Amino acid sequence: MTLAQPATFARTPASAAGRIVKAECILVSVPFQADVKLVWGFTGGGKNTFDTLLVRLETDTGLVGWGEAFSRAEDVALRSLVETRIFPLIMGEDAAAISKIKFKLEFGLQNFGRVGPTMYAISAVDIALWDIAAKAASQPLVNLLGGPFAREVEVYASLLRYESEDGIARAVREAIGRGYRHIKLHDITYPLIAAACEAAAGEATVMLDVNCPWSVAEALAMDARIAHLGLTWLEEPIWPPDDYRGLARVRAQGNHRIAAGENAGSLHDFVAMADAGAIDIAQPDVAKTGGVTELLKIAAFCAASAIEFVPHCALFGPGQIATVHINAAQRTVPLLERLYCDFEAEIYGGATLPVGGRVEVPHAAGLGIEPDMAVVDRYRIA
Ligand SMILES: [Mg+2]
Fold it and tell me: Rounded to the nearest whole angstrom, what is the distance from the C-alpha of residue 260 to the centroid of ligand 1?
Protein backbone atom coordinates (compact mmCIF):
# COMPACT_ATOMS: atom_id res chain seq x y z
CA MET A 1 0.00 0.00 0.00
CA THR A 2 1.18 3.50 -0.77
CA LEU A 3 0.15 6.41 1.38
CA ALA A 4 0.28 9.63 -0.60
CA GLN A 5 -0.66 13.13 0.39
CA PRO A 6 -0.73 16.30 -1.73
CA ALA A 7 2.20 18.63 -1.09
CA THR A 8 0.16 21.34 0.64
CA PHE A 9 2.32 21.95 3.70
CA ALA A 10 2.90 25.66 3.46
CA ARG A 11 3.32 26.37 7.19
CA THR A 12 7.09 26.82 7.30
CA PRO A 13 9.70 26.22 4.63
CA ALA A 14 11.09 22.70 4.79
CA SER A 15 14.77 21.83 4.65
CA ALA A 16 16.54 20.70 1.49
CA ALA A 17 15.41 17.20 2.42
CA GLY A 18 11.81 18.29 1.88
CA ARG A 19 8.56 17.16 3.43
CA ILE A 20 7.45 13.54 3.36
CA VAL A 21 4.67 13.29 0.79
CA LYS A 22 4.68 9.59 -0.09
CA ALA A 23 5.33 6.43 1.89
CA GLU A 24 5.32 2.85 0.75
CA CYS A 25 5.98 -0.46 2.49
CA ILE A 26 7.13 -3.39 0.34
CA LEU A 27 7.52 -6.90 1.73
CA VAL A 28 9.95 -9.08 -0.22
CA SER A 29 10.74 -12.73 0.50
CA VAL A 30 13.56 -14.38 -1.46
CA PRO A 31 14.39 -18.13 -1.41
CA PHE A 32 17.94 -19.12 -0.55
CA GLN A 33 20.11 -22.16 -0.94
CA ALA A 34 21.98 -23.63 2.00
CA ASP A 35 22.45 -27.16 3.26
CA VAL A 36 20.66 -26.33 6.50
CA LYS A 37 17.77 -27.18 8.75
CA LEU A 38 14.52 -25.26 8.37
CA VAL A 39 14.83 -23.30 11.59
CA TRP A 40 13.94 -20.01 13.28
CA GLY A 41 10.67 -19.64 11.35
CA PHE A 42 12.60 -18.54 8.25
CA THR A 43 10.46 -20.68 6.01
CA GLY A 44 7.89 -19.52 3.52
CA GLY A 45 5.78 -22.09 1.70
CA GLY A 46 8.03 -24.97 2.79
CA LYS A 47 11.15 -23.30 1.39
CA ASN A 48 14.01 -21.51 3.07
CA THR A 49 13.41 -17.81 2.54
CA PHE A 50 14.45 -14.55 4.12
CA ASP A 51 12.21 -11.47 4.21
CA THR A 52 13.28 -7.93 3.53
CA LEU A 53 10.64 -5.42 4.61
CA LEU A 54 11.39 -2.21 2.72
CA VAL A 55 10.12 1.25 3.62
CA ARG A 56 10.31 3.82 0.83
CA LEU A 57 9.80 7.48 1.70
CA GLU A 58 9.60 10.27 -0.85
CA THR A 59 9.75 14.01 -0.23
CA ASP A 60 8.36 17.00 -2.08
CA THR A 61 11.88 17.83 -3.25
CA GLY A 62 11.97 14.52 -5.10
CA LEU A 63 14.33 12.69 -2.74
CA VAL A 64 13.70 9.01 -2.00
CA GLY A 65 14.93 7.23 1.11
CA TRP A 66 14.96 3.49 1.79
CA GLY A 67 14.66 1.83 5.18
CA GLU A 68 14.27 -1.72 6.47
CA ALA A 69 12.41 -3.34 9.35
CA PHE A 70 13.49 -6.73 10.68
CA SER A 71 11.05 -9.28 9.28
CA ARG A 72 10.74 -13.06 9.03
CA ALA A 73 8.31 -15.59 7.53
CA GLU A 74 6.40 -13.22 5.23
CA ASP A 75 5.39 -10.85 8.00
CA VAL A 76 2.32 -9.16 6.52
CA ALA A 77 1.23 -8.13 10.04
CA LEU A 78 4.35 -5.99 10.38
CA ARG A 79 3.75 -4.47 6.96
CA SER A 80 0.22 -3.59 8.06
CA LEU A 81 1.56 -2.03 11.27
CA VAL A 82 3.93 0.16 9.26
CA GLU A 83 1.14 1.26 6.92
CA THR A 84 -1.59 1.88 9.47
CA ARG A 85 0.22 3.04 12.64
CA ILE A 86 3.46 4.59 11.36
CA PHE A 87 2.84 6.26 8.01
CA PRO A 88 -0.09 8.47 9.13
CA LEU A 89 2.17 9.98 11.82
CA ILE A 90 4.99 11.00 9.46
CA MET A 91 3.18 12.40 6.42
CA GLY A 92 3.97 16.08 5.92
CA GLU A 93 6.90 16.11 8.35
CA ASP A 94 10.19 17.72 7.35
CA ALA A 95 12.38 14.71 6.56
CA ALA A 96 15.44 16.45 8.04
CA ALA A 97 13.86 16.40 11.51
CA ILE A 98 15.00 12.83 12.11
CA SER A 99 15.21 12.86 15.90
CA LYS A 100 11.92 14.74 16.21
CA ILE A 101 10.12 12.24 13.99
CA LYS A 102 11.64 9.32 15.86
CA PHE A 103 10.55 10.81 19.18
CA LYS A 104 7.05 11.48 17.84
CA LEU A 105 6.71 7.83 16.81
CA GLU A 106 8.21 6.39 19.99
CA PHE A 107 6.19 8.64 22.31
CA GLY A 108 2.97 8.23 20.36
CA LEU A 109 3.27 4.45 20.18
CA GLN A 110 4.77 3.75 23.62
CA ASN A 111 1.84 1.52 24.61
CA PHE A 112 2.54 -0.78 21.67
CA GLY A 113 5.97 -1.88 22.80
CA ARG A 114 9.50 -0.60 23.27
CA VAL A 115 10.89 -3.90 21.93
CA GLY A 116 9.53 -5.75 18.91
CA PRO A 117 7.52 -4.94 15.77
CA THR A 118 6.66 -1.32 16.62
CA MET A 119 10.33 -0.56 17.19
CA TYR A 120 11.26 -2.47 14.02
CA ALA A 121 8.90 -0.19 12.08
CA ILE A 122 10.32 2.96 13.71
CA SER A 123 13.81 1.70 12.88
CA ALA A 124 12.88 1.43 9.19
CA VAL A 125 11.64 5.03 9.08
CA ASP A 126 14.80 6.26 10.82
CA ILE A 127 17.06 4.47 8.29
CA ALA A 128 15.08 5.92 5.37
CA LEU A 129 15.33 9.43 6.85
CA TRP A 130 19.12 9.12 7.18
CA ASP A 131 19.25 7.98 3.54
CA ILE A 132 17.30 11.13 2.58
CA ALA A 133 19.48 13.38 4.77
CA ALA A 134 22.67 12.06 3.17
CA LYS A 135 21.20 12.40 -0.32
CA ALA A 136 20.14 15.99 0.49
CA ALA A 137 23.76 16.65 1.51
CA SER A 138 25.09 14.82 -1.59
CA GLN A 139 27.26 12.74 0.76
CA PRO A 140 27.55 9.06 1.55
CA LEU A 141 25.88 8.29 4.88
CA VAL A 142 29.21 7.53 6.58
CA ASN A 143 30.23 11.17 6.12
CA LEU A 144 27.23 12.30 8.18
CA LEU A 145 28.27 9.89 10.94
CA GLY A 146 31.66 11.52 11.41
CA GLY A 147 33.40 10.12 8.36
CA PRO A 148 35.02 6.78 7.62
CA PHE A 149 37.83 5.05 9.48
CA ALA A 150 37.89 2.44 6.70
CA ARG A 151 36.93 2.15 3.04
CA GLU A 152 36.12 -1.54 3.44
CA VAL A 153 34.55 -3.53 6.24
CA GLU A 154 35.55 -7.08 7.07
CA VAL A 155 32.64 -9.50 7.13
CA TYR A 156 32.04 -12.61 9.19
CA ALA A 157 30.16 -15.56 7.79
CA SER A 158 27.22 -16.16 10.10
CA LEU A 159 26.40 -19.80 9.42
CA LEU A 160 22.87 -21.15 9.84
CA ARG A 161 22.09 -24.41 11.64
CA TYR A 162 23.25 -27.69 10.09
CA GLU A 163 22.07 -31.30 10.00
CA SER A 164 25.38 -33.08 10.58
CA GLU A 165 29.04 -32.75 11.48
CA ASP A 166 29.96 -33.32 7.85
CA GLY A 167 27.52 -30.64 6.74
CA ILE A 168 28.84 -27.98 9.08
CA ALA A 169 32.49 -28.85 8.37
CA ARG A 170 31.77 -28.55 4.64
CA ALA A 171 30.15 -25.14 5.14
CA VAL A 172 33.10 -23.90 7.23
CA ARG A 173 35.61 -25.01 4.58
CA GLU A 174 33.51 -23.42 1.84
CA ALA A 175 33.28 -20.10 3.74
CA ILE A 176 37.05 -20.08 4.27
CA GLY A 177 37.46 -20.81 0.56
CA ARG A 178 35.34 -17.72 -0.17
CA GLY A 179 37.76 -15.57 1.81
CA TYR A 180 36.09 -15.39 5.23
CA ARG A 181 38.50 -15.33 8.18
CA HIS A 182 35.82 -15.05 10.84
CA ILE A 183 32.91 -17.48 11.21
CA LYS A 184 29.97 -17.63 13.57
CA LEU A 185 28.10 -20.82 14.34
CA HIS A 186 24.43 -21.16 15.32
CA ASP A 187 24.53 -24.82 16.31
CA ILE A 188 23.88 -25.85 19.90
CA THR A 189 25.20 -29.41 20.19
CA TYR A 190 28.77 -30.20 21.14
CA PRO A 191 29.62 -32.56 18.24
CA LEU A 192 28.66 -29.99 15.58
CA ILE A 193 30.36 -27.09 17.37
CA ALA A 194 33.56 -29.12 17.78
CA ALA A 195 33.46 -30.30 14.14
CA ALA A 196 33.17 -26.70 12.94
CA CYS A 197 36.07 -25.54 15.12
CA GLU A 198 38.23 -28.38 13.84
CA ALA A 199 37.38 -27.47 10.23
CA ALA A 200 38.31 -23.82 10.88
CA ALA A 201 41.46 -24.49 12.91
CA GLY A 202 44.24 -22.05 12.10
CA GLU A 203 42.33 -20.39 9.26
CA ALA A 204 39.37 -18.62 10.82
CA THR A 205 38.31 -17.42 14.24
CA VAL A 206 35.03 -18.92 15.45
CA MET A 207 32.20 -17.36 17.43
CA LEU A 208 29.19 -19.23 18.82
CA ASP A 209 25.61 -17.93 18.86
CA VAL A 210 23.05 -20.29 20.37
CA ASN A 211 19.93 -18.03 20.39
CA CYS A 212 18.82 -18.33 24.02
CA PRO A 213 18.24 -22.09 24.56
CA TRP A 214 19.52 -22.71 28.12
CA SER A 215 19.02 -22.03 31.79
CA VAL A 216 21.96 -20.49 33.62
CA ALA A 217 23.01 -23.92 34.93
CA GLU A 218 22.78 -25.49 31.48
CA ALA A 219 24.71 -22.62 29.95
CA LEU A 220 27.50 -22.94 32.51
CA ALA A 221 27.73 -26.69 31.90
CA MET A 222 28.06 -26.17 28.14
CA ASP A 223 30.42 -23.23 28.67
CA ALA A 224 32.80 -25.56 30.54
CA ARG A 225 32.50 -28.29 27.93
CA ILE A 226 33.39 -26.00 25.00
CA ALA A 227 36.01 -23.93 26.86
CA HIS A 228 38.93 -25.71 25.13
CA LEU A 229 37.67 -24.76 21.65
CA GLY A 230 38.91 -21.16 21.90
CA LEU A 231 35.70 -19.46 20.77
CA THR A 232 35.89 -15.68 20.34
CA TRP A 233 32.56 -15.13 22.09
CA LEU A 234 29.44 -16.92 23.35
CA GLU A 235 26.24 -15.20 22.20
CA GLU A 236 22.84 -15.26 23.89
CA PRO A 237 23.33 -18.45 25.94
CA ILE A 238 20.23 -18.20 28.16
CA TRP A 239 16.48 -17.85 28.10
CA PRO A 240 14.95 -15.32 28.26
CA PRO A 241 17.23 -12.83 26.48
CA ASP A 242 16.30 -10.06 28.92
CA ASP A 243 17.43 -12.05 31.98
CA TYR A 244 20.45 -9.79 32.43
CA ARG A 245 21.16 -11.10 35.95
CA GLY A 246 21.35 -14.64 34.59
CA LEU A 247 23.55 -13.54 31.72
CA ALA A 248 25.84 -11.80 34.19
CA ARG A 249 26.20 -15.05 36.15
CA VAL A 250 27.21 -16.94 33.02
CA ARG A 251 29.68 -14.16 32.22
CA ALA A 252 31.14 -14.09 35.76
CA GLN A 253 31.39 -17.85 36.29
CA GLY A 254 32.03 -19.06 32.74
CA ASN A 255 35.00 -19.01 30.41
CA HIS A 256 33.71 -16.90 27.53
CA ARG A 257 33.21 -13.30 26.60
CA ILE A 258 29.46 -12.74 26.36
CA ALA A 259 27.73 -11.11 23.38
CA ALA A 260 24.06 -10.05 23.31
CA GLY A 261 21.72 -7.29 22.28
CA GLU A 262 19.88 -8.28 19.10
CA ASN A 263 16.70 -8.63 21.17
CA ALA A 264 17.05 -5.19 22.77
CA GLY A 265 14.84 -2.26 21.84
CA SER A 266 16.80 0.86 22.73
CA LEU A 267 19.85 2.43 24.36
CA HIS A 268 18.25 1.92 27.77
CA ASP A 269 18.30 -1.86 27.41
CA PHE A 270 22.06 -1.69 26.83
CA VAL A 271 22.48 0.52 29.90
CA ALA A 272 20.59 -2.12 31.90
CA MET A 273 22.81 -4.89 30.47
CA ALA A 274 25.92 -2.93 31.39
CA ASP A 275 24.61 -2.15 34.89
CA ALA A 276 24.05 -5.88 35.42
CA GLY A 277 27.56 -6.71 34.18
CA ALA A 278 25.94 -8.93 31.54
CA ILE A 279 27.92 -8.28 28.34
CA ASP A 280 31.35 -7.81 26.82
CA ILE A 281 30.01 -7.25 23.29
CA ALA A 282 26.89 -5.21 22.44
CA GLN A 283 24.93 -6.25 19.36
CA PRO A 284 22.17 -3.76 18.53
CA ASP A 285 20.41 -4.32 15.20
CA VAL A 286 19.76 -1.20 13.12
CA ALA A 287 16.43 -2.61 11.86
CA LYS A 288 15.21 -3.61 15.35
CA THR A 289 16.74 -1.19 17.84
CA GLY A 290 15.70 2.26 16.64
CA GLY A 291 17.67 2.73 13.45
CA VAL A 292 20.85 4.70 12.78
CA THR A 293 19.97 7.33 15.41
CA GLU A 294 19.76 4.82 18.25
CA LEU A 295 22.83 2.85 17.16
CA LEU A 296 24.96 6.01 17.31
CA LYS A 297 23.85 6.53 20.92
CA ILE A 298 24.58 2.90 21.77
CA ALA A 299 28.02 3.13 20.12
CA ALA A 300 28.87 6.17 22.26
CA PHE A 301 27.62 4.42 25.40
CA CYS A 302 29.74 1.35 24.59
CA ALA A 303 32.82 3.52 24.03
CA ALA A 304 32.35 4.98 27.50
CA SER A 305 31.67 1.60 29.11
CA ALA A 306 34.53 -0.64 27.91
CA ILE A 307 32.02 -2.70 25.89
CA GLU A 308 32.70 -3.72 22.29
CA PHE A 309 30.15 -2.45 19.76
CA VAL A 310 29.53 -5.11 17.10
CA PRO A 311 26.08 -4.60 15.52
CA HIS A 312 23.87 -7.57 14.76
CA CYS A 313 22.98 -7.75 11.07
CA ALA A 314 20.78 -10.56 9.79
CA LEU A 315 19.58 -8.18 7.08
CA PHE A 316 19.92 -8.03 3.32
CA GLY A 317 18.38 -4.67 2.44
CA PRO A 318 18.90 -1.02 3.47
CA GLY A 319 19.58 -2.19 7.03
CA GLN A 320 22.65 -4.10 5.91
CA ILE A 321 23.99 -1.10 3.99
CA ALA A 322 23.28 1.26 6.91
CA THR A 323 25.24 -1.12 9.15
CA VAL A 324 28.21 -0.97 6.77
CA HIS A 325 28.22 2.84 7.08
CA ILE A 326 27.82 2.73 10.89
CA ASN A 327 30.63 0.19 11.27
CA ALA A 328 32.95 2.15 8.99
CA ALA A 329 32.44 5.26 11.16
CA GLN A 330 33.78 3.54 14.33
CA ARG A 331 37.41 3.97 15.41
CA THR A 332 37.66 0.22 15.92
CA VAL A 333 35.70 -0.91 12.87
CA PRO A 334 33.45 -3.82 13.92
CA LEU A 335 33.10 -6.95 11.82
CA LEU A 336 29.95 -6.94 9.69
CA GLU A 337 27.65 -9.93 10.11
CA ARG A 338 26.36 -11.65 6.96
CA LEU A 339 24.12 -14.70 7.17
CA TYR A 340 25.76 -17.43 5.14
CA CYS A 341 23.37 -18.41 2.35
CA ASP A 342 23.06 -17.91 -1.39
CA PHE A 343 19.91 -16.21 -2.63
CA GLU A 344 17.98 -17.03 -5.78
CA ALA A 345 18.25 -13.31 -6.59
CA GLU A 346 19.95 -10.33 -4.92
CA ILE A 347 17.91 -7.24 -4.05
CA TYR A 348 20.94 -5.09 -4.90
CA GLY A 349 21.99 -7.15 -7.90
CA GLY A 350 24.99 -8.50 -5.99
CA ALA A 351 26.47 -5.09 -5.05
CA THR A 352 26.26 -5.88 -1.32
CA LEU A 353 27.84 -9.34 -1.54
CA PRO A 354 31.18 -9.73 0.24
CA VAL A 355 34.22 -10.31 -1.96
CA GLY A 356 37.10 -12.10 -0.27
CA GLY A 357 35.34 -11.64 3.06
CA ARG A 358 35.06 -7.85 2.72
CA VAL A 359 32.54 -5.26 1.51
CA GLU A 360 33.30 -1.79 0.26
CA VAL A 361 31.70 1.19 1.98
CA PRO A 362 29.44 2.73 -0.68
CA HIS A 363 30.59 6.18 -1.78
CA ALA A 364 27.55 7.49 -3.66
CA ALA A 365 25.15 9.81 -1.83
CA GLY A 366 22.87 8.37 0.85
CA LEU A 367 23.10 4.66 1.53
CA GLY A 368 24.84 4.69 -1.84
CA ILE A 369 23.13 1.70 -3.48
CA GLU A 370 19.56 1.50 -4.77
CA PRO A 371 17.43 -1.66 -4.89
CA ASP A 372 16.96 -3.51 -8.16
CA MET A 373 13.22 -2.95 -8.59
CA ALA A 374 12.89 -5.87 -11.03
CA VAL A 375 14.03 -8.22 -8.24
CA VAL A 376 11.88 -6.43 -5.64
CA ASP A 377 8.79 -6.74 -7.87
CA ARG A 378 9.49 -10.41 -8.66
CA TYR A 379 9.66 -11.45 -4.98
CA ARG A 380 7.25 -9.03 -3.33
CA ILE A 381 4.46 -10.50 -1.21
CA ALA A 382 1.11 -9.18 -2.38
MG1 LIG B 1 22.58 -13.76 17.38
Answer: 7
CA of 154 to the centre of ligand 1 (A): 18
The answer for residues whose C-beta is within 8 angstroms of residue 242's C-beta and 6 or more apart is 263, 269
Structural domains of the chain in order of their starting residue, each with its CATH number: 2-138 (3.30.390.10), 142-371 (3.20.20.120)
Cis amide linkage into residue 237, ω under 30° from 0: no
Cite the DSSP H helix spans in the chain.
Answer: 76-81, 87-90, 98-108, 117-136, 141-144, 165-177, 190-200, 216-225, 244-253, 267-276, 291-303, 318-328, 373-379
C-alpha of residue 143 to centroid of ligand 1, in Å: 28
The Å distance, Cα 80 to ligand 1 centre, comes to 26
Closest C-alpha among 220, 66, 172, 84 to residue 128: 66
Q: How many angstroms does the Cα of residue 283 sit away from the middle of ligand 1?
A: 8
Q: Which of 142, 160, 202 is nearest to 328 (CA)?
A: 142
Per-residue model confidence as pLDDT tens digits over 319-368: 999 999 999 999 999 999 999 999 999 999 999 999 999 999 999 999 99
- Verdict on whether the full-model pTM lies above 0.70: yes
Distance 133 CA to ligand 1 centre (A): 30
Measured in Å, residue 17 CA sits from the centre of ligand 1 at 35
